[in-house]
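Protein modeling request. Please complete all fields; requests missing the sequence field cannot be processed.
Requester role: graduate student
Desired output: 3D structure, token encoding
Chains: 1
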Amino acid sequence: MAESAENYQVAQALVAQLQGMKEEGNQIAMKISELDQERHEHSLVIATLQKLDSDRKCYRMIGGVLTERTTGEVLPAVKENMQKLEGVCNDLYARLQSKEKEMQEFQSKHNIRLARPGQPQQKAEPAAAGAAEYSV
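Delivered output (136 residues):
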């Protein structure tokens, strides 16, 4: 009986660890989405500013302060910011893929299967003696 309770605690700890990994992956995905939106906004600003004369007045928000510049001064800065955003997005994509791979390896190592909504949980026989299977 004590062994069964211990197995249950181990299973709960493994599931909690997997849930933590999933949450971290979700946070990375949300940040990617947010930065993609900013990148799209930057591309719209760049497209608009490229059509204008470089001596035309332009206003830019820097640290909460609205400053008056020319489009010729602002355009290179916006392009640079967009390149930085693309770099950060690419790094986050790589981290997300790494996290997903880590989760898959963790699931296969500990024989954890995720139950899909509306799908009944199946009781499967462990593959080897002493092996346990956990469903989430």
